Amino acid sequence: MNDIMNVLIIEDEPMMVEGIERTLTHFQNAECDLKLKIKTARDCDTARSEINKAVQGTPLDLVLLDISIPESKDHKYLSGEDLGIKIKQEFPRAKIIVFTSYTNNYRLNNILKSLNPDGFLIKYDVDCKTLTKALETVIYDPPFYSQKILKLLRQTNLNEFTIDSINRRILFEISEGTKTCHLCDIIGLSKSTIESRKRHMKEVFDVSEGGDAALIKAAKLKGFI
User: 3-154 in CATH: which number?
Assistant: First the structure.
């Protein structure tokens, strides 16, 4: 094979990073002709910086992406999901393995639709053996999904919706106490459009009564905040 792969680990838990790096090293040693050049990022700002460096230099080949990481200071990137979308735009040939502790079907389905990752693992499913198998499958014959994800895919009553990056930003700002009048400037949409998106999300989350507080409560229960 004789390949060099540029790898970026985006994960904020030090023990998880250490475990991933150790598994990657073992995997590299087992694949005699494969060399991994590994970099890490533990929040959205650092990850964005590494992505931009790769755009200007050597493209990313493999990204191991945690969904729940600290947001960027400018709130443009609220989670790993936003970073994943950017990575797919900048490096369409890169393989992405997503890690998440979310187990809510709404949230998992949303990640599947927005990122369509080459690998998708629930954190409590991950051990050295599983991650090694995921790496082998994703690199040579993707995709690889953990048992929880496979169970989700076997269900026939999945909701056909996606909470996009704009809606996630609206939810975040509301949860932070931002008023609708200020949302218009922050999001760049009219008040009527924002209210329409909020109504749609209430329908999606089955919120029949209550205002913004009820919407935020439902979004938190389903793992979107």
Answer: 3.40.50.2300
21-30, 53-62, 150-159, range with the lowest pLDDT: 150-159
pTM above the 0.85 mark?
Answer: no
| Residue 161, pLDDT above cutoff 70 | no
Residue with tokens 């797919």: 88
Q: How far apart are CA 71 and CA 91, in angstroms?
A: 21
Q: Which two tokens stand for residue 187?
A: 């999001």
User: Of 6, 38, 10, which is closest to residue 22 (Cα–Cα)?
Assistant: 38
Phi and psi, residue 92, nearest 5°: -60, -20
Is residue 98 a contact partner of residue 115, using CB atoms and an 8 Å limit?
A: yes
Give the class (CATH, top level) of 165-221. Answer: mainly alpha
Residues spanned by CATH 1.10.10 within the chain? Answer: 165-221
- Alpha-carbon gap, residue 172 to 55, rounded angstroms: 28
Task: For residues 45 and 159, give the distance between their C-alpha atoms in angstroms, rounded to a whole number.
Answer: 32
